Amino acid sequence: MKRRSIPIGRPRRDPRHYRFTAPNAVWKYKLKPVEFVIFSYLCYHRNPGVLTPEMIASDVHITVSTVKKYLTTMVSKGIVSEDGTPVLMCKGEKFFTLPNEVFLLKLSPSAFMVYAYLLLIEDRRTLTCHPSYNTIAAATGMSKNTVVKSISTLLEAEFISVESSSYFDKHGLKWKGNNLYAILPIQNAVDLHNQRQLRRLAETVERMRVRKKLEGNEERPA
Fold first, then answer.
1. Number of C-beta neighbours around residue 58 at 10 A
2. Which candidate, 27, 126, 161, 220, has a CA 20 to 30 Å from the CA of 198?
3. Nearest residue to 36 (alpha-carbon basis) of 64, 65, 60
4. Distance of alpha carbon 20 from alpha carbon 41, whole angstroms
5. What confidence score (pLDDT) does residue 87 get?
6. pLDDT top residue among 171 and 107
7. Whole-number Å distance between alpha carbons of 163 and 184
8. pLDDT digits (tens, 9 = 90+) for 163-187
9. Stretch 130-154: mean pLDDT, rounded?
10. Pairwise CA distance, residues 85 & 189, whole Å
11. Stretch 90-118: mean pLDDT, rounded?
C-alpha cells in the first residue's frame, strides 16, 4: 500500500471551522457503513426535520430506496426519531467532530466510517492515532480486507497520511507495529478532489472537440 508521511509539526486544524458533532454513543449500535453515513448527515444538518429521503440521497450519494430502508431501521433502533432527528444528540453526551466538507467528496460508506473512527480516537494534541486493522474492523463491524481498502482510499484522497512503525521485544527482536495515522487538514482532500474534477472536465471537453473534428471530416465531400 502506498504510504505518505508528513511532519508531525505541521499547521494544526482549527477545530471550530466548518465542523459538526456526532455522539460517541453511536458506535455502540454497530451501524452498517451506509447507516452510519446517513446518521452522520442527520447530525450535520441543522434542521433534519425538513429533510426528505430524496434530499438525503442526493447529498450522501446513495439511492432513495437505500435511505428509506436505513432510516426505518434506525428509527426502530431508537437512535433516530420519526422526524429524522438524531435521538443521541442530547446534553451530557460526549461527541467527536467531522469536517462539513466530507459530504462533498463522495467517499464510499466504508471509507467514510473508517475516517470517522480515526477522528474519534485521534490524539487531539498530535492529530494522530495508531489502531491496528483488527481494532478498526472490530469498531466498525467491517472485515479486515474492507478496512485495508478503506485506508488506501483515504490515503490516496489525502484525508490521512500513514507511517509504518516498529518495536523491539524484550529479547531484542524487531517487530512491525501498527500504522501511525495522521489526520490531514480537510482542505488537502478538497483541493485534490477539485483538481481531479477539473481534469475530468478538461478530458471530456477534449474528447468532444476531437469527436466534432472527426465528424466534420467525415461530412466533407471526397
1. 12
2. 161
3. 60
4. 10
5. 86
6. 107
7. 13
8. 987 666 666 666 676 889 999 999 9
9. 96
10. 29
11. 91
> According to DSSP H, which parts of the chain are helical?
33-44, 53-60, 64-77, 109-121, 133-140, 144-156, 186-219
What is the DSSP-derived secondary structure letter of residue 159? S
Q: What is the mean pLDDT of residues 151-171?
A: 84
What is the value of pTM for the model shown?
Answer: 0.81
Decide: helix, strand or coil at residue 125. Answer: coil
> Taking CA 51 as the corner, what is the angle to CA 48 and CA 53, rounded to the nearest 5 degrees?
125
17 secondary structure, DSSP code: S
Exposed/middle/buried for residue 210 (C-beta within 10 Å: 0-12, 13-18, 19+): exposed
Four-point Cα dihedral 16, 17, 18, 19, nearest 10: -30
Set of cell numbers at residue 155: 490515503
- C-beta of residue 102 within 8 angstroms of C-beta of residue 112: yes
Return the C-alpha cell found at 184. Answer: 490531514
Q: Is the pLDDT of residue 69 over 50?
A: yes
Q: Give the span between the Cα atoms of 216 and 158, in whole angstroms.
A: 43
Residue keyed to cell 446534553: 91
Distance, in Å, from the CA atom of 142 to the CA atom of 145, rounded to the nearest integer, reads 8
> Cell numbers at residue 116, please?
470517522
Q: How far apart are CA 93 and CA 77, in angstroms?
A: 18
Using only C-alpha atoms, the chain has a radius of gyration, in whole angstroms, of 21
Task: Answer whether 162's CB lies under 8 Å from 114's CB.
Answer: no
Q: Is the CB of residue 39 less than 8 Å from the CB of residue 79?
A: yes
3-32 average pLDDT score: 67
